[in-house]
Amino acid sequence: EAVWEPRVFLLGSGGAGKTSLMRVIGNLPCNDDEPKTNGVKIEVNLWKELPWMQSGKTRIDHISVWDFAGQEHDISLNCLLMMTVALYILVLDARREDDPEEWLNYIQTYSPKSKVLLVINKIDTVNPVVSIENRMHYSQINIAKYCDKYANIVGVYQVSCRDLQIPGNELEELKRDIYSQILAMESQFHK
Question: How are beta strands 40-43 and 115-121 bridged, if at all?
């Protein structure tokens, strides 16, 4: 039986909520006093036992979730650690007009075959901007522009790690799509 260890990389600016997102996906509470991440924080078994990770052709011994620091001086180190087969979750802060272009360029340069899930976090801290087809939008970032330019973006989600019940929170959809992307990476592993 083949053993495969998928890697999920969390990227984004400092304070965007990458560590909080990693925790709530693992069914742990959001910690408002979470210290900033220095360098890279790697969690190996945080997501392993989740019900949505319990199928597939290959036994998944570990899921490595890499929480990259988002401070400016850490970005060059992050590039050295990026790899070809990984799932990237790019976390943006809904309170700021974060420009994901730099991060998307890094991913395209250092890991061009990897898929990207774009997450707008902290939607509980801002009011919806528009409502289209009953979907709340909490950011004025022109997401469509980036999706058109970067074909490896396979999903866009609005989440709140602090308020899981807020209308428009797409945390469950994000979890489902993380699972499906990991399964897609698994099929590449078997080739």
Answer: unpaired
